[in-house]
Structures are given as structure tokens and as C-alpha cells.
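Trying the structure run again after the queue cleared.
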Amino acid sequence: MHRSAFLLITAVGEGVTGLFLLLWPAVPLALLLGMHAAAPETLLVARVAGTALLAIGLTSGLAQDDTGSQALRAVLAGILLYDVAVAVVLAYAGIGLHLAGILLWPAVVAHAVLAIWCVGCLRLTRLPAAP
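Done. C-alpha cells:
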């Protein structure tokens, strides 16, 4: 299940998305939700979300070489929660709120696939035996 590859893909994907949300929030909002004129409050919240994604990306990148600690399991559990929640929230945006940009459904599928991959990584991450 190549945990290092999973963490690298998460680091790059969330890091790039986070940078876009932080620096140019209107771009990902248009691509994901089809919003072409966002209120200043929406742009501010998008920037806060971008900062959180940068943190997830940084944490994933730094955890990439961990071979199986309790901290790695915590990082993977957090990423799993994030991927599942984002897939559900974005699907709700498309189905329930009728918001959809060109990248909405690919993002839903990507986060669902990443969540499944993350479950596999968690299952293979065993804690070291106690001394």
C-alpha cells in the first residue's frame, strides 16, 4: 500500500490546493463550486481553509519517512477523517446545494480514493513492540 507515496501525494495535493486557497481563493472556489463572485467573508474563510490544508500538507510530508510510530498512526487517522469528510461535504455541495465547478466530482472521487488508500495504510502501520 506504499504509505510513503500516499503521504507524498497528500502533501503535494493539499499543499498546492492550500496555496491556491490562501493566495488566490477565487480560483479553487470557481473550479470546485462554480462560484465566480464570492463575498469577502467567503474569501476569508477560504484563506483560513487554505492555511489548514498547508498544515495537512506539511504534516504529511514530514511524516513520509516514519516507519510506524503512534504519531504516524495519528497523522493517518487525521488524514482519513479529512478525506472522508471532504468527499461527503463536496458531494453534498453538488447534490444538495447544486454547486458544481469543473473539478467538483473529480475532487469527490479523489478524496474517496485517498480515504480508501489511507485505510490500507493504517492497517499496515503496526506500532513497534513495547520494550
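Helices lie at 3-23, 26-33, 40-63, 70-95, 104-124. Worth checking whether this holds up in the mutant runs.
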